Amino acid sequence: MTPTRDPLDPIAALCERLKLPEVGRLAATRAEQAAAAQWTYTAYLADLLDAEVATRQTRYVRSHTQMARLPFHKTLEHFDFALQPTLDERQVRQLATLQWVDAADNLIVLGPPGVGKTHILVAMAMQAIYARIPVYCVTIQDLVADLRKAWDENRFAARLATYTRPRLLCIDEVGYLPLNTLEANLFFRVVAARYEHGSLALTSNKGFTEWGAVFGDPVLATAILDRLVHHSTILNIRGDSYRLREKRQAGLFGEAAARPPLTSGNTATP
User: Fold this and answer.
1) Quick one: average pLDDT of 91-109?
2) CB 3.0–4.6 Å: which of 3, 31, 77, 175 could bond 204 by disulfide?
3) What is the pLDDT of residue 239?
4) Which band of pLDDT confidence, cut at 50, 70 and 90, is reported for residue 256?
5) CATH 3.40.50.300 correct for 70-249
6) What number of other Cβ atoms are within 10 A of residue 212's Cβ?
7) Pairing mode, if any, of strands 232-236 and 135-139?
């Protein structure tokens, strides 16, 4: 007796050729559901294609999140705005629409340690990845160490492309350690190369008046700030550290813990 041929075999073969694995995997099951629920042919096809798109998006987000080298994976849904009243939640959620990335503008997040600056940076990076915008994240120390090594090996121009190619470059921890003359100049080269071509998002625990000490040269710091701030939004978080708050709640030390203020104001420029 000749075995009955599965009528969906040709679909599976075609899906393999067209690289539609999710459609091929679900075609039979969804056909049964469609028959039972009396879906139209259009609804059945749309359901299969939607599953394929969703699977591809999940795979894309997973792989590009790894490629972006995020320090952790958090979105704005994990951010407790109630604990940072100086931060305008509506403004931050508007920034998550990424219109500033479309315009090649910048985002600068200032504040003392532990107030959620890196969380906001990562949330914006995650939002960009969901929107299929190329992203790369790095601390300023890792960036200048990488570029200095390339400089010493006479391959700086090629390595610089790593930091100019992504539409969004996230740089964390500006100001935690001072840079020497060469490192400051290499960082300036990155900022200058991206100016009005690609977006920068960075965090700093120093107010702008202290950047001269960070970069070892007030003139160079002014040149860097001129390019960063020209088309930018500046968020200044003046709240308390999440980590210190948790320790106080645990009774490890009193309310007199230091809360270092920033010297720059909470401003936004178009």
Assistant:
1) 98
2) 175
3) 74
4) very low
5) yes
6) 16
7) unpaired
pTM over 0.85: no
Q: Is the separation of the CB atoms in 168 and 128 below 8 Å?
A: yes
125 compared with 15, residue with greater pLDDT: 125
What residue ranges of the chain are covered by domains with CATH 3.40.50.300?
70-249
The count of other CB atoms within 10 Å of the CB of residue 28 is 15
Distance CA 46, CA 44 (A): 6
Compute the distance between CA of residue 247 and CA of residue 243 in angstroms, rounded to an integer: 6
pLDDT of residue 240: 72
In angstroms, rounded to a whole number, what is the distance separating the alpha carbons of residues 239 and 84? 5
Count of beta carbons in the 10 Å neighbourhood of residue 178: 11
Q: What kind and span of H or E run contains 190?
A: helix 181-194
With a CB cutoff of 8 Å and minimum separation 6, the contacts of 178 are 213, 214, 215, 216
Tokens of 76: 């704005």
**Per-residue pLDDT for 233 more than 80?**
yes
Annotate 57-95 with DSSP letters as a single string: HHHHHHHHHHHHT-SS---GGG--GGG-TTS-HHHHHHH
DSSP 88-124: -HHHHHHHTT-HHHHTT-EEEEE-STTSSHHHHHHHH
CA 230 vs. chain centroid, Å, equals 21
- Predicted confidence at residue 269, as pLDDT, reads 39
